[in-house]
């Protein structure tokens, strides 16, 4: 901490050499993955491309290394970008905004601002007591866990670019609209009284970090995140590989594979009480997808799991009275339901 | 010195408390680290990013799991 004090902030050149080297190494690795595993599995290990075993093994190693590499690059980049955002700055930006533009901005900042879901209540108090409208605050709190880099990379790695982009778009729209609707409902009187009277302590002024510090922080963030995700990834891709060649794909389609309202509703109702993050839920999604469940149903299941959870609702109950909490659950669940139906229609 | 770790009790908060205790040991001090887990009190100290570290009523770090060495440096500054 105190080494930042003496630093001359005007002289902090961007680390071009390091960035370009990193980018080159990453690109070369990414490019050589497919030829490398082709060579190892079909060449050295003499597996055939035409057997389920050969394909399954190839799928496991190639996909694991591809997603790991993507995750590393993405988490690092996002962490560096996020080092320019803080929850305090976000609060300042949202301070003067009304419903509407405020909701859009809150949803976007929910994605960009580094934020741990265990701080949801302090953030809620900090936002609302400084005059940010309730609906805008809720847009922020909905977007933040739902649209995150791990979800995006894993969706991209498992299902491709279109699914990943659509998920981001839908997540942002949902966060924006749900917050907007809740704001229109005039539920402010159902916020616990002490929140509005909360006296915020003096906020700590922090020194601007240098590029070196941003990179170091991003590197340690990437390391701990990848280690956290790795077991889920291995299980997910392992199951995916097992299903790759062996399980008849249309077995379950006949039963759970319809795209109707009731199947999406079912998925959301099962998803809400479950508590997990994107990394934990995606392996399950991939398995169910290979078994033939429609993508819209699965994505709304995933949204329900990451955006709403019982532990989070218990925490939010500290600041939201039951009618407001109920409205929150209802609007977000309804939004996820509609999103799922749209996904099913589009994908 | 009055030292508290602010956070509702997730893994990061425990790690920060652990690191703070290590830092105190390294300095040969005997203070106890207090945990403030009530989200309302946390917000009352102006903290929106957890875990946070507070020394003598002053927030010195937010949203970071500091390494024990960094905490040693901070504590040295605030030692009376």
Structural notes for this entry:
The complex is a heterodimer of chains A (347) and B (80). With 347 residues, chain A is mainly α. In chain A, 73% of the residues lie in helices and 0% in strands. Chain A contains 16 helices and no strands. In chain A, α4 runs parallel beside α6, α7 packs antiparallel against α8 and α8 runs antiparallel to α16. The longest helix of chain A has 35 residues. Chain A is flat. The N terminus of chain A is likely disordered. Chain B has 80 residues and is α+β, with helices and mostly antiparallel strands. Chain B is built from three helices and four strands; from the N terminus they run βαβαββα. Chain B has a four-stranded mixed sheet with strand order 2-1-3-4. Chain B is globular, with a radius of gyration of 11 Å. Classes of the chains: A mainly alpha (347), B alpha+beta (80).
Quick structural overview:
With 347 residues, chain A is mainly alpha-helical. In chain A, 73% of the residues lie in helices and 0% in strands.
Give the SSE layout.
The complex is a heterodimer of chains A (347) and B (80).
Chain A: H1 16-44, H2 52-82, H3 87-95, H4 101-112, H5 120-129, H6 134-146, H7 149-159, H8 161-184, H9 193-197, H10 211-245, H11 253-256, H12 261-271, H13 278-290, H14 295-307, H15 310-316, H16 322-346
Chain B: E1 3-6, H1 11-26, E2 33-36, H2 39-44, E3 52-55, E4 58-62, H3 68-78
Parallel strand pairs in B: 1-2
Antiparallel strand pairs in B: 1-3, 3-4
Helix pairs in contact in B: 1-3
């Amino acid at each position: 901490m105190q080494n930042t004090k003496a630093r001359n902030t005007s002289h902090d050149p961007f680390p071009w050499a390091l960035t370009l080297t990193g980018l080159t190494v990453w690109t070369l690795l990414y490019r050589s993955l497919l030829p490398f595993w082709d060579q190892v599995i079909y060449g050295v290990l003499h597996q055939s491309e035409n057997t389920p075993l050969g394909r399954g093994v190839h799928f496991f190693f190639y996909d694991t290394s591809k997603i790991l590499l993507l995750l590393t690059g993405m988490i690092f980049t996002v962490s560096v970008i996020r080092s320019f955002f803080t929850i305090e700055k976000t609060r300042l930006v949202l301070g003067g905004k009304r419903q509407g533009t405020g909701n859009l901005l809150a949803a976007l900042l929910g994605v960009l601002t580094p934020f741990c879901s265990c701080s949801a209540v302090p953030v809620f108090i900090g936002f609302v007591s400084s005059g940010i409208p309730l609906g805008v605050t809720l847009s922020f709190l909905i977007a933040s866990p739902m649209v995150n880099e791990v979800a995006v990379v894993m969706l991209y790695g498992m299902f491709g670019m279109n699914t990943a982009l659509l998920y981001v778009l839908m997540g942002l729209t949902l966060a924006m609209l749900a917050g907007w609707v809740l704001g229109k409902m005039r539920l402010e009187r159902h916020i616990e009284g002490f929140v509005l009277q909360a006296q915020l302590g003096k906020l700590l002024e922090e020194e601007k970090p240098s590029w070196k510090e941003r990179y170091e922080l991003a590197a340690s963030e990437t390391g701990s995140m990848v280690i956290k995700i790795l077991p889920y990834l291995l299980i997910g891709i392992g199951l995916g590989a097992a299903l790759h060649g062996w399980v008849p794909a249309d077995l379950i389609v006949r039963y759970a594979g319809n795209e109707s309202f009731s199947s999406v509703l079912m998925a959301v109702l099962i998803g809400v009480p479950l508590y997990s993050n994107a990394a934990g839920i995606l392996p399950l999604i991939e398995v169910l997808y290979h078994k033939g469940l429609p993508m819209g149903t699965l994505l709304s299941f995933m949204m329900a799991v990451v955006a709403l959870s019982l532990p989070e609702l218990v925490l939010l109950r500290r600041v939201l009275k039951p009618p407001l909490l109920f409205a929150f659950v209802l609007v977000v669940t309804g939004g996820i339901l509609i999103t799922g139906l749209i996904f099913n229609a589009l994908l | 010195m009055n030292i508290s770790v602010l956070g509702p009790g997730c893994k990061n908060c425990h790690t920060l408390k652990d690191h703070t205790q290590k830092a105190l040991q390294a300095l040969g001090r005997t203070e106890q680290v207090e945990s403030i887990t009530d989200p309302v009190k946390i917000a009352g100290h102006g903290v929106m990013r957890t875990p946070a570290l507070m020394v003598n009523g002053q927030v010195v770090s937010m949203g970071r799991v500091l390494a024990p060495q960094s905490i040693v440096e901070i504590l040295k500054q605030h030692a009376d």
